[in-house]
């Protein structure tokens, strides 16, 4: 792709680094910004810069937050005896949109994937174990994607957590194998949480 401006080329190259954005889409986005008011583009730039520099991760659940403790963990209206274990922030948002869950979360920050060099030590597993030691937790819900990596992670976590006297369940598989939680419709995801089953039952 030939560019009439080095600045334009550099901007397109940066946008094209975003997931799912090719050069043509990146060019369209950059040209769109060029057609906006300077103040509007500055507001966009400031929002992205503040996001990168000021964002925090909740010290309890590791969800993305504006403060040291996220709003969910800080809320007295949530059931803190119920922890839903998810892969990342997108899954927290997907489950919250169902309005079917009132517990708290634990964000692993990924899934075990030996082929990608991701092991248990790369995830927020130890902090989950510490939460169970320090708090009156009654149930853990595994809400991970129905993939090989998701199943591997659940199997590992179950072995780590079964020492505790708590219920360990997994969301019902109304979700097709290979499905990512963020792409599941809210009704299906909501029902899969409400109709969750003991994890050991899912093995049979």
TrEMBL record:
<dbReference type="Pfam" id="PF02132">
    <property type="entry name" value="RecR_ZnF"/>
</dbReference>
<dbReference type="InterPro" id="IPR034137">
    <property type="entry name" value="TOPRIM_RecR"/>
</dbReference>
<keyword id="KW-0479">Metal-binding</keyword>
<keyword id="KW-0234">DNA repair</keyword>
<keyword id="KW-0227">DNA damage</keyword>
<dbReference type="GO" id="GO:0008270">
    <property type="term" value="F:zinc ion binding"/>
</dbReference>
<dbReference type="InterPro" id="IPR023627">
    <property type="entry name" value="Rcmb_RecR"/>
</dbReference>
<feature type="zinc finger region" description="C4-type">
    <location>
        <begin position="58"/>
        <end position="73"/>
    </location>
</feature>
<dbReference type="InterPro" id="IPR000093">
    <property type="entry name" value="DNA_Rcmb_RecR"/>
</dbReference>
<dbReference type="GO" id="GO:0006310">
    <property type="term" value="P:DNA recombination"/>
</dbReference>
<comment type="similarity">
    <text>Belongs to the RecR family.</text>
</comment>
<feature type="domain" description="Toprim">
    <location>
        <begin position="81"/>
        <end position="176"/>
    </location>
</feature>
<dbReference type="InterPro" id="IPR006171">
    <property type="entry name" value="TOPRIM_dom"/>
</dbReference>
<dbReference type="Pfam" id="PF21176">
    <property type="entry name" value="RecR_HhH"/>
</dbReference>
<dbReference type="InterPro" id="IPR015967">
    <property type="entry name" value="Rcmb_RecR_Znf"/>
</dbReference>
<comment type="function">
    <text>May play a role in DNA repair. It seems to be involved in an RecBC-independent recombinational process of DNA repair. It may act with RecF and RecO.</text>
</comment>
<keyword id="KW-0233">DNA recombination</keyword>
<dbReference type="Pfam" id="PF13662">
    <property type="entry name" value="Toprim_4"/>
</dbReference>
<dbReference type="Pfam" id="PF21175">
    <property type="entry name" value="RecR_C"/>
</dbReference>
<protein>
    <recommendedName>
        <fullName>Recombination protein RecR</fullName>
    </recommendedName>
</protein>
<keyword id="KW-0862">Zinc</keyword>
<keyword id="KW-0863">Zinc-finger</keyword>
<dbReference type="GO" id="GO:0003677">
    <property type="term" value="F:DNA binding"/>
</dbReference>
<dbReference type="GO" id="GO:0006281">
    <property type="term" value="P:DNA repair"/>
</dbReference>
């Amino acid at each position: 792709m030939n560019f009439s401006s080095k600045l334009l080329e550099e901007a397109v190259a940066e946008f094209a680094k975003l997931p799912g954005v090719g050069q043509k889409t990146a060019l369209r986005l950059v040209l769109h910004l060029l057609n906006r008011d300077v103040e509007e583009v500055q507001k966009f730039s400031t929002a992205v810069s503040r996001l990168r520099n000021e964002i925090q991760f909740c010290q309890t659940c590791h969800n993305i937050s504006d403060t040291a403790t996220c709003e969910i963990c800080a809320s007295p209206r949530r059931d803190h005896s119920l922890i839903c274990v998810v892969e990342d922030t997108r899954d927290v948002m997907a489950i919250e949109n169902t309005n079917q869950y009132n517990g708290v979360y634990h964000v692993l920050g990924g899934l075990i994937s030996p082929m990608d060099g991701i092991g248990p030590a790369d995830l927020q597993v130890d902090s989950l174990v510490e939460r169970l030691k320090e708090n009156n937790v009654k149930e853990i819900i595994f809400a991970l994607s129905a993939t090989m990596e998701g199943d591997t992670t659940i199997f590992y976590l179950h072995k780590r957590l079964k020492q505790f006297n708590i219920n360990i369940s997994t969301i019902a598989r109304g979700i097709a194998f290979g499905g990512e939680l963020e792409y599941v419709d809210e009704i299906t995801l909501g029902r899969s949480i409400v109709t969750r089953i003991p994890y050991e039952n899912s093995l049979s």
